[in-house]
Protein 1
Amino acid sequence: MEQKTLLIIKPDGVRRGLVGEVLRRIEAKGLRIVKLKMLRLRRECAERLYDIHKGKEFFEDLVSFMTSGPIVAAIVEGDNAVNVVRTLIGPTDGRKAPPGTIRGDYALSIKENIVHAADSAERAEYEISVVFSVDCSIED
C-alpha cells in the first residue's frame, strides 16, 4: 500500500554530516523523497511534534535538543513507507539498535539517535502538518 511518512534528521545527524547518508539509505530502499527542507524548529512546533510525550520526564530535554540546531525534514513515499522507514532507522535506543540500521550504525545515545520517524500513517499526517507548516521555521 502506497503511504506517506515523515523522517527528520535531528540536530545531531545534521551536525555530524549524516544527512546525505540517511537520505541515501532511504532512496536505496526504493522510497521516494517527495519534499525536503532544512529548518530550525520553533519551540512551539517541537512541543506539538512530541505532544504524545508531554508530561514525561524526558519531554523538556527532547524539545530543547530538537530546537538546538537545524534539522532536515523529509516527506517520504512508497509501499508501506511507515513500516519500511521504521525498520531502516531501528529502535529508539541506538545502543540497542542492530548494526545495519541507521541508529545502530550512528546513534550515540537514546537522545542523540540521529533520526525521528512517524510511527503510523495517521501520526505521519499530523507530524507533516506540524513540521511543514509555514510558522514552524526560525528564520536565520
Protein 2
Amino acid sequence: MHEAEEDSGTVFRDVIMLTLLGFVTIVVLMLPHLNPPKADDTAKPAGNIVVEARWADGSSSDVDLWVQGPGDKPVGYSRKNGELFDLLRDDLGTERDLTGLNYEFAFSRGAPAGEYIVNLHLYSLRKETPPVSVEVAISLRNPVNGTLERIASRRVELNRQGEEITVQRFRLDANGALVRDSLNRLPKQLRSVK
C-alpha cells in the first residue's frame, strides 16, 4: 500500500505543477494585452476646412449651406457627402429641432490645391419675414501646427425664398495654405449643379 500512496502523491504533484505551468503561460500571454500601447497621436484630425453657418436661434427659416471643393460636386442638403466635403448638419429651422439652435456646418477631408466655394441658399422662410441674417465662418487647419485658423467670416442677408448667395471663394496651394489675395465673392450657383 505504501507504494500506491507514493504513486498517487507523485501524480498529484505532477497535476498541480502542470496546472501552475498552464496558469503562468496564460498570464505571460495576456501581459501584452493588459496595457496596450497608446495610439499614434500624429494622425491628422478630421476637418482641414471647416465651414459654419449660423442664423437666429428659434427662427423657423430653413437656410442651407452649400460647399464645393476642387474637382468635386457641390455638397448641400440634397447631396450631403462628396469626395472632399461632408455636410454634418442640415438644420431645418425650428422644424424637428429640440434645441432651437440654427446651425449648419461642413468639414473637408484634406485640403487639395484649387478653388473652394461657399454658398448660402434660403430654402424656406416659413413664418419669417425677410431678411434672414446669417453669419458664416470659414476656418482652415494650419498645415504646420495643426490649429484651426479663421480665414474668412461674413454676415449676409438673404432677402427672398430661393435666393442663393456666394459667401466666399478662395484658393489653396499645394501645401494646403491659403493663396494670398484669392478671397473673392464672384457669384456661382452650387445648388442646381448636378
Protein 3
Amino acid sequence: MICLTCGRENDQQAQICGFCGQKLTYGSAGATSTAPSVNMVRDQNEEPRYAGFWRRFLALFVDELILSAVALVFSTSYLLTIRSGPDMESVKVTALGSNIFSLLVHWLYFTLMESSPRQATLGKMAIGIIVTTGDGRRLSFLRANGRYFGKLLSALIFGIGFLMAGFTRKKQALHDMLADSLVICNVRILPGNEEKK
C-alpha cells in the first residue's frame, strides 16, 4: 500500500509506514495516513520531546564541519589561482565566485535537507533530531527558506534568537517561531520501521 504522507510503497499488511513511521488505515481507496508525519511513532496524546539548545548546537557544529570541508576545496582552488600569479582582477573575480558559491551551498544544504523526507541535515541525523512544522508535518521548501533566513535575524540580535531555544517551552529559537517550526528528538522508531535497502 502507498503511504499518502511520504508516497512510498509498503507491504499489504503494514499498519505503520516503514519509511516515515506514519500510521496507515485502510479504506475503500486503500491505505491512507491519519496523522502528520514526524518520522517517529508516538501516542497521539504524547507531546514530542523537543531538542534543546545543546543538541541543536552539536548538530549545527557537525553541519558546519561538513560545509567547511566543501568550502576548503574551493578555497584551495582560489589559493592556487593566486600562486599562479594572474592579474589582480582575476583574483577578485575568483574570490567573489568562491564566496557566492559557498553561500549558495550553505543555503541549499539547509533548506533542501530540512524540507526533504528525512527532515534533517546530516548533523541533525547524526544527533537524532528532525525539523517539523508546528503541527508535526514536513516543512515545505518555502517554509524551510523562511526558517533559514530567519536565522539571520536570530544572529543579528547578538545571537539571542538562537539562545531562545534553551528557554522557551517548546525549545524554539526565534527563527523557529517565525517559521512555525519545531526541532524534535526522533525518539522511538519501532522495529521493522527502518528504511528498506
Protein 4
Amino acid sequence: MAAIIRTVSLNPALDEAPSIAHLELGGTNRCSLDSLDPGGKGINASRVIHRLGRPTIALGAAGVDPGLYG
C-alpha cells in the first residue's frame, strides 16, 4: 500500500484561462472564460502527483471576499 502524500496550500487560488475568438487590432476585443481551475503550489503539486498515479490529498484554506458582507 502506497503512502498518501499530503500537500498544504496556505494561499490557494483559482486559475482562469480566457480565450479570444478573433483579435482585431485597434478594435474592442472580448474574451470568454474557457476554464476556472483550482491552483496554488500545493494544489498543483497534488494534481501532478495524482496524474503520476500516486494517492494524494490537497489541503487548503477557503475564505470569502470580505466585500460581500461589508
